[in-house]
Amino acid sequence: MIVLEIQELAIGYKSARRPVHVVADDISVTLKTGELVCLLGPNGAGKSTLMRTLAGMQPPLSGQVHLMGKPLEDLNPNELARRLAIVLTERVEAGHLSAYELVALGRYPYTDWSGRLTETDESVVRWAIEMVGAKPLVQRLVSELSDGERQKVMVARALAQEPDLILLDEPTAFLDLPRRVEMMQTLRKLARETGRAVLLSSHDLDLALRSADKLWLLSSKGKLQVGAPEDLILSGAFEAVFQSEGVEFDRTTGTFRVHTHHAGQIILNGEGLRLVWTRRALEREGFQVVEDDSSLPCIEILETGWRLIQAGQPENFSSLYELIAALRKIDLLARV
Amino acid sequence: MIPTAPKKREATIMDTSLSRINLQTHEHTWPQTGMRGALLIILLAGLVAVFLLNIATGSVDIPLNNIVKILLGGEADKAIWETIVVKFRLPKAVTAMLAGAGLSVAGLQMQTLFRNPLADPFVLGISSGASLGVALVVMSAGTVGATLIAELGLLGNFTTAAAASLGALLVLVVVLFVARKVESSVTLLIVGLMFGYTTGAAVSLLMYFSITERIQAYINWTFGSFDGVTWEQMRVFAPLILLGMTLAYVQTKPLNALLLGEAYARSMGVNIQRTRLLIIMSTALLAGTITAFCGPIGFIGVAVPHLCRSLFSTSDHRTLIPATLMMGAGLALGADLIAQMPGSQVVLPLNAVMALLGAPIVTWVILRQRNLKMAFAR
Asked: What are the residues facing A256 on neighbouring strands?
């Protein structure tokens, strides 16, 4: 089922005194139930503006956004809150509020004027908490939670709103790697099991490539490209959006590399895991690893170490650190 | 959509009986939400006690059983006691309760709206407006009138109240106008602060060009006092305060949502503009009216919300609003009791008494709670 339908949307800023500033335009895309979608794009491409526009916090310049078949601007605040929930990047400072009370606030659009929770409300709150695995946290004060725990609770709060769409603005920004992976897994599970659509903006390309069903790629020129992560890599779109000076995207591994071959070329012989990491070390140092060319220096991976053959002179090293240090000296000499 | 029953999972995941017991006990640890009834009742009992004590003490001691008799409409042992209680002590006690409760709730609303622990009922500049109104009346109404000063002393109450109301109202209108214009509440906070500086400067100028007696009269007003409100004036005072409190009470739910900040509140369906206007109106009504009738009463508005948050360990306004009402009323009654120096003819300045005795107590409570929590956390 289609949750969000965007037609020829233009986003940006309009004010009385300044000319209209278009951040991105001609955006036409849909979002279905059960999908986890990552919005990616370089800094300044307009990810936040798009998220704000979709959340109804900022009017679009032109075009249409339909949420569950209804135009966004026709929804009153309460109707909108029942269809759409948000999770923001910033830490929430909620003082003397327990994790449970915070999640319970998500029932806001459903409760009466006093905010009293009915049995249904309570059970939805509990379900949301269990869904994100935050049950051990319920008694704790929000101010005592770690960033990862807090973000989990915020997702539960969004879920307690029982929205059709959850928007998350860089939800993993302050988390360490294991917590990020965990958060993405939670969101994936949530999209799958509860049949909701989840859209998150992220700077974490690697994680997005691995866990999103679909990517929305916003280029700095303000165009949106959509597809499965792998499709976008194969078509070269991913590379095009993130290309910049001195950084190279490796389509084989799906990772970015600093690409400067200022140190010249080198030959590498060996196999296995040690080959992979030796290659990484050499690339980091600025070497381009090439196939056979006898005039170049050559590195052989031995049982217990590394051998560098330079101008017919072999030299052995017991660690990559020492090898690299020696290569640096040669490099300097060559430049002189 | 439909919550999955936790019991099913229990059966599938948990095999050992030990962990099943764990899960079952966990089942019962879902916290309770909503109002904390028991603590509020204790607070109410305390309030009634301070109320009776406040009425019983003063320059003349009246036995408690007589107080109760008079309050229930019976005959006191001495006729004069009845006059003292009904004409002087009762209106003063009611004023203290209303003022204390009103300022506390106003402070709570400001601290939540601005998400700032230092906010008090006067951050919007309402009391500055009132001060300016009073200063204008007291210090600039002609230079000749020794009679005028005498007048101010006797029937001055109503004049000052009217002047203060006018000043407060004027500031309120400007603040409301600004509130409709600006997006961010922080801007509003700064505008309020600027009002404070401007009116403060105007008052300074007035004082500079005024004569000592008038300056003294103005300073006396700034000390704050609960005994200026007669039953006559109570007909204006009480309804305004009750209206302000009602406005605050119906904002309980949006106030809770605002704990997460305006962006989240909006996303949960709060109409931020309307909520902000209602909160400002409630606060202005409370702070303006109280300043007009009792002078600028500080301390309570900023301290009581913290005290209640600490004691009840919650930020939930469903508990905090009734709690601050009672705590504020009780504290005001207590401070008034001490300021009257029972058994003597001396009356100390109310503001001084309140801060002098209150600040250490509040500090102690907040620090103690913080330590407790840290000890329990890990």
From this structure: A249
